[in-house]
Specification:
Elements: H1 2-32, H2 36-47, H3 57-83, H4 88-94, H5 101-118, H6 123-134, H7 140-154, H8 162-189, H9 196-210, H10 212-218, H11 225-243, H12 246-259, H13 262-267, H14 269-274, H15 285-302, H16 307-313, H17 315-329, H18 335-352, H19 357-371, H20 380-397, H21 400-403, H22 409-413, H23 418-435, H24 442-451, H25 453-456, H26 469-485, H27 491-494, H28 499-513, H29 521-539, H30 555-567, H31 575-591, H32 595-611, H33 616-632, H34 638-653, H35 658-668, H36 683-708, H37 715-729, H38 737-752, H39 760-779, H40 781-787, H41 797-805, H42 828-842
Helix pairs in contact: 1-2, 1-3, 2-5, 3-5, 4-5, 5-6, 5-7, 6-8, 7-8, 8-9, 8-10, 8-11, 9-12, 11-12, 12-15, 15-18, 17-18, 18-19, 18-20, 20-23, 23-26, 24-28, 26-29, 28-29, 29-30, 29-31, 30-31, 31-32, 31-33, 33-34, 33-35, 34-35, 35-36, 35-37, 36-37, 37-38, 37-39, 38-42, 39-40, 39-41
């Protein structure tokens, strides 16, 4: 049925356009021959096509615009006729002989526009006559389009000053009354109930025409503030209130707001706001009032010179009272409407009175009062408005510290669900990071973390399983960045803060994040630990406390807090992360010369390694972290260092895989040789570690030969060779050129053996090592002499060619250690060479 109706309407429109074009053709021919009588005849027949009632407003508009274009040509003809001596009064009377009222009035309006322009009669009389006669069209659609035509053709011909302007304005105001009653009221009531939706759609299509008269009225220069305040606005509001139609009232109120100047609205604010409570309860007042406040906000933001006007008229008080009356009058107003109004009012307040935090807090308090009887908001649109409401102060002040002064701000957040709380928390954190806001007191930090508690812990028993993992990680990373920002990187600024206050901030953050549960702690504990370590490093240095006598915080107190904080990761469990943090704390204690504290942190790291870390890959990573950290420690005495070093080497020898054992053991050699510490250079123990690494590498070759039938790669031997070269250069007397030469020959022979598995990476690694030796020899001087006994070349030219071809730089990771079995994994022809080398290295 709907499709058939659309097709019929298209046919009717096509027929109307065809009839209009045909009569327009004959009208043009009459105009060209200056035949006035035929021109009027065919123009009337042309306009008769507008008498149809079969078209919707949208289709009727297409037909109307074609007629409008033709009437503009007719208007030009009438002007030419008056110049040739034809009386405009005679023309005005002649067109009234048209048979049908609608064509007659269109022609009358066309001649009337020329009549007003000629000034042969007062414009107010002609316009009043036309307005009165246009009331004769009772059909809503046809009547609206006729009045629209009258306003369009006469808008540029009205007087701008004097009493005639006043009367012209009144006449245009009168045009709105029949439009409202006919187009809005009657079209909403007439017809069967089953066509109600269709009629409502037609009314919406017509509303642009309803507001055109107000638009024309606003453009008349003679309508100054006094006329608008005393005549225009009261008359228009009277008609809006009296029409009793919700669609018309909403649209016309919005029209008034949009078409008249902002300064007019500001000076007549009380009159305009007084009409809102009188509108129908179903009118969308929130939208209209929000647009009014939006325009006033933009007006205030346009120039600081207009702000005194707002203060003079007490705009905030009037808007606040008006919103209160509207909400009170419409008891069934949805919560969305009330929140939207308060959001717009807050935006207005922040633009007009940015220094009056009490005004902003008053708006938030009124919103809390409205929300108090609603519970948690379930309307998604209302929650979006709440987010807009809470975001407005952040956008205006760019300072969360200022926002925290609004006592009702946290109360508003209590009425949103957990998801919206998270959204708002993210907005707050992004604002802090964007503006690099520094929060200097524990109280403010506590208030901030109460605001973002939706990210810190689960609210209202919210099911965490339903949270997207990527979103969760992004949220927790934002919290981590926030924790890092609580400490100012500017040293001078840091010194202005009392250390006790800084420790209180850390304790406050700790109290909040420990409630986050096991899934959040791995994200939030590390930044807290590193923020605490920043404080520790600030406390290092001279014996005199740089913060003055009031500063009572010491590194020991911070380390005690850190120890307790890291222990919370045991329950996650996150032993690898806890071990890393213990080592970081141990290094900070080393910088503070606190040997007992550093030893305790290492002890905790070792306990974690022994009891909690069982995965072989995690063990490899952990042991290298331990070795690297221990190598940098200088605070330990001989006994403590020997204990920790012995433990580290023992852990290295017990790793699961032989290559991992080998790499961890030769890494332990650095524990006995520290460049910048003369008391930690034990060449003999370095050599023992390297010999042990060779044994384990040989065992790995033996295992590979037993399980795969080949000796496998020589990469481990090349890595050990590089360690020999390192300590050889550093002056370890236990490492000599003969040992290096023997190891080079061993690797070369093994690479040439038939049982060796081809490994281009190992070949390139070895070739790069040989080139380094050659480069050192070419340096000359003491270095050249040191390397001179070493022959960095291979006898087999094919092998050399292969090595050079695969000479690419490949980095190798480090691994662990096993038992000390000595294998015979090499090919028979190389066993005698291996025996001699092994005796040299091991014995």
């Amino acid at each position: 049925m709907m499709v058939d109706g659309v097709e019929d309407e298209e046919k009717w429109l096509a027929a109307g356009i065809a009839g209009l074009q045909q009569n327009a053709f004959y009208m043009h021919r009459a105009l060209d021959s200056n035949n006035l009588r035929d021109a009027l005849k065919y123009s009337a027949q042309m306009l008769s096509e507008l008498r149809t009632s079969k078209l919707s407003p949208q289709k009727y508009y297409q037909l109307y615009m074609r007629a409008f274009d033709e009437l503009r040509k007719l208007e030009m003809f009438f002007k030419e006729e008056t110049r040739r001596g034809c009386s405009i009064i005679d023309l005005y009377e002649l067109v009234q002989h048209a048979g049908n009222i609608l064509p007659r009035l269109y022609l009358l309006c066309t001649v009337g526009s020329v009549y007003i322009k000629s000034k042969e009669a007062p414009a107010k009389d002609v316009l009043k006559d036309l307005v009165e006669m246009c009331r004769g069209i009772q059909h809503p659609v046809r009547g609206l389009f006729l009045r629209s035509y009258l306003s369009q053709i006469s808008r540029d011909k009205l007087p701008d000053i004097g009493s005639e302007c006043y009367t012209a304005c009144e006449s245009f105001i009168l045009l709105a009354d029949p439009e409202l009653r006919l187009a809005v009221g009657l079209s909403g009531l007439q017809g069967p109930a089953r066509e109600k939706d269709k009629r409502e759609k037609e009314r919406s299509e017509l509303r642009d025409l309803v507001g055109k008269n107000l638009h024309v009225l606003s453009q008349i220069e003679g309508v100054d503030l006094d006329m608008y305040k005393e005549t225009v606005l009261p008359r228009v509001l009277e008609q809006v209130v009296n029409c009793k139609d919700e669609i018309a009232q909403c649209y016309l109120m919005d029209c008034i707001i949009q078409v008249f100047p902002d300064e007019y609205h500001l000076q007549t604010l009380e009159i305009l706001l007084g009409a809102f409570p009188q509108l129908q309860p179903s009118v969308d007042i929130k939208t209209v009032l929000s647009r009014l406040m939006e325009r006033l906000s933009n007006y205030a933001a346009s120039s600081t010179e207009v702000l005194p006007e707002f203060l003079q008229v007490e705009a905030f008080s009037k808007l606040n009272n008006a919103i209160g009356k509207v909400i009170e009058a419409q008891a069934d107003m949805p919560i969305l409407g009330a929140v939207t109004l308060y959001s717009s009012l807050l935006t207005f307040t922040l633009h007009v009175h940015p220094d009056r935090l009490d005004y902003a807090d008053q708006v938030l308090g009124a919103c809390v009062k409205k929300l108090s009887g609603e519970g948690k908001l379930e309307d998604n649109r209302a929650t979006k408005q709440i987010v807009a409401l809470l975001s407005a102060p952040l956008d205006k002040y760019n300072d969360i510290v200022t926002v925290l002064k609004l006592s009702n701000y946290p109360s508003v957040m209590e009425y949103v669900d957990s998801e919206t709380n998270k959204v708002m928390a993210m907005v707050i954190i992004q604002s802090i990071m964007k503006n690099n806001t520094q929060i200097s007191t524990a109280d403010k930090v506590g208030a901030l973390f109460e605001l973002i508690k939706g990210l810190i812990r689960d609210l209202d028993g919210a099911a965490h399983d339903q949270v997207d993992e990527d979103d969760f990680k992004e949220e927790q990373n934002s919290v981590a960045r926030l924790i890092q920002m609580l400490q100012n990187d500017d040293t001078e600024e840091m010194f202005k803060l009392n250390t006790l206050n800084m420790l209180q901030i850390i304790c406050t953050v700790r109290k909040h994040i420990l409630t986050g549960g096991p899934k959040r702690l791995p994200f939030t504990v590390p930044p807290l630990v590193f923020s605490s370590l920043k404080l520790v490093r600030q406390l290092q240095g001279p014996e005199e406390n740089p913060f003055g006598e009031e500063g009572s915080t010491t590194p020991k107190k911070v380390f005690q807090l850190l120890n307790q904080t890291i222990e919370t990761l045991y329950g996650v469990p996150a032993p690898e992360l806890a071990l890393r943090l213990y080592l970081q704390c141990a290094e900070a204690a080393n910088d503070s010369d606190l040997e007992p504290v550093a030893y305790e942190f290492f002890t905790q790291a070792y306990i974690l390694y022994e009891e909690e870390i069982s995965d072989s890959r995690a063990q490899v990573t952990a042991i290298h972290l331990i070795i690297g950290t221990l190598q940098r420690m200088h605070v330990f005495g001989v006994e403590n260092r020997d204990t920790l070093t012995h433990k580290a080497t023992g852990y290295s020898a017990k790793l699961l895989k032989k290559p991992d054992q080998c790499r961890a053991v030769y890494a332990c050699s650095h524990l006995f040789w520290v460049d910048d510490q003369d008391n930690m250079k034990d060449g003999e123990r370095v050599l023992l570690c390297l010999k042990r690494a060779l044994r384990i590498a040989n065992a790995a070759q033996q295992m590979s030969n037993a399980t795969r039938g080949s000796t496998g790669s020589v990469t481990l031997f090349v890595e050990i060779l590089n360690k020999y070269l390192y300590f050889f250069e550093k002056g370890n007397t236990q490492i000599n050129a003969a040992a290096i030469q023997s190891l080079i020959e061993l690797i070369t022979a093994e690479m040439q053996s038939e049982s060796n598995s081809p490994d281009p990476a190992a070949d390139a690694f070895f070739a790069s090592t040989l080139r380094y030796i050659q480069f050192q020899k070419q340096k000359g001087g003491a270095v050249g002499e040191k390397y001179e006994p070493i022959k960095a070349s291979a006898d087999n030219s094919d092998l050399t060619h292969s090595i050079e071809r695969f000479a690419v730089d490949t980095g190798r990771g480090f691994g662990g250690v096993d038992s000390f079995a000595i294998g015979q994994a090499f090919s028979p022809r190389n066993q005698s060479l291996w025996s001699r080398v092994l005796v040299f290295f091991v014995c």
